[in-house]
Amino acid sequence: MFGITDYGAFVVAIIIFLLIPGPGNLALITSTSKGGIKGGFGAIFGVIVGDQFLMWMAVAGVAAVLTTYPSAFKAVQWLGAAYLAFLGAKMMLAKPGDAPVLNIKPHHYFRQALMITLLNPKAIVFYMAFFPLFVDPTHHLGMTTFAVMALTIAALAFAYGLTAVLLTHFLAQRLRANPLIPRVLEKLAGLFLIGFGIKLVTSR
User: Fold this and answer.
1) Does position 45 have pLDDT exceeding 90, yes or no?
2) N or C: which end of the chain has fewer CB within 10 A?
3) Is 135 helix (H, G, I), strand (E, B) or coil?
């Protein structure tokens, strides 16, 4: 189908990838809890746009350049780790009554999620290693095959993001009755962001 060896397996693999906890998931949850449905949708599109950019960068062979020049790859890794740690520290140090770490305007949530996604260089390497597994060399349609794969990823990411946003919004409305719980969750989210940043530069 469109030069894809096993489209069903490709869809399942993407769903599993989306379910793995990471900075993107955290951006969706935090944006929704701070900015409601509009903030969540801003984050959804930020993650999708960032993901598509990294995917096409991988297709263009950027991953090969990054792995050929480890210093450049490391520099991007450290930049991403520093940004995640910065956000996490701000969330952990925020006091009751402080302005939210993530702004309330949806386009800010879009930008925040986009930056978090773009500053994860391992996503490029993932796509570079992932795509060849599902490309049928005898029926490959060139850019059409990659375009179908890209659209599939975008559609699944939107469906997953929408589910995550609605669930988060539904639960957030019930958590607001106890102001202590959102503060604890914000501290935990900040801790996880710092953890993701550390993992980004220490994992091999």
Assistant:
1) yes
2) C
3) strand
- Between CA 118 and CA 51 the distance in angstroms is 7
Task: Please report whether residue 71 resides in a domain.
Answer: yes
> Left, alpha or beta for 3 (phi > 0: left; psi -120 to 50: alpha)?
left
- Contact status, residue 197 vs residue 80, Cβ threshold 8 Å: yes
**Domain ranges, residue 42:** 7-16+23-202
126 assigned to some structural domain: yes
**Counted domains in the chain:** 1
Is 60 exceeded by the pLDDT of residue 30? yes
User: Is residue 136 included in any domain, yes or no?
Assistant: yes
